[in-house]
Amino acid sequence: MEDKNKVEINKFDSLPAPTAFHIPDTLPLLTLQDVVPFPSAMLPLHVTSSSEKMLIEDTSKSHRLVALLTEKPIDAKGEKKEETKKVLYSIGCIGRILQVHPTPDGGLNVFIQAIKRFFSGGIMRESPYPVVKVLLLEEPQYDPREIEPILLALKNQTDEILKNTPNVPEEARLFIQNI
């Protein structure tokens, strides 16, 4: 039986590590503002709060994995959300800390690679930093024979729009054609 919590490391990962690693059921939670992580995305973050710095420092000494969830924006009425309670999306990415560098302002510059999508099973602990229950999501599998015609139709429609739009450089059309 295959371990669903085992993830292959991206070949571009510069840290020495085995070829796969286990994802625990709970992970420290790093909340993001105005950033939506996707698997394979590289995220440069600047961390300044004491709890987030502690989270990064503790996690960097162990498995280097963090749960990344994005904060929901201000509601449609333009009212600010309560500062003490963050409202988070329920689906995020598990990230692997690749590099950590202290900054002169006392913060940390952190470089994280998002590796796998997850569903938040809820906050398990709040202090000294939040820890979330992680429920891994399976990535959808697509048949390339179904995707190729859709991609071709999309490219053709985009090319037609670009042809009929004034002041669009020829390079834009060439870029779309070469996808």
Question: What report would you give on this structure?
Answer:
The protein is an alpha+beta fold. The chain folds into two domains: 6-136, LON domain-like (Archaeosine Trna-guanine Transglycosylase, Chain: A, domain 4, Roll); 144-177. Helix content is 22%, strand content 34%. It has a five-stranded mixed barrel. A hairpin with a 5-residue loop joins strand 6 (91-102) and strand 7. The relative contact order is 0.18.
From the 3D coordinates, which CATH architecture of the largest domain would you assign? Roll
Multimerization status: single chain
What is the CATH T-level topology of the largest domain?
A: Archaeosine Trna-guanine Transglycosylase, Chain: A, domain 4
Order of helices and strands: EEEEHEEEEHH
Report the major sheet.
5 strands, mixed, barrel
Helix count, per DSSP?
3
- The CATH class designation of the largest domain is Mainly Beta
Radius of gyration from the alpha-carbon trace, in angstroms: 20 Å
In total, how many domains does the architecture comprise?
Answer: 2
Q: Identify the strand order in the major beta sheet.
A: 3-5-6-7-8
Specify the helix fraction band.
10-25%
N-C termini distance? 38 Å
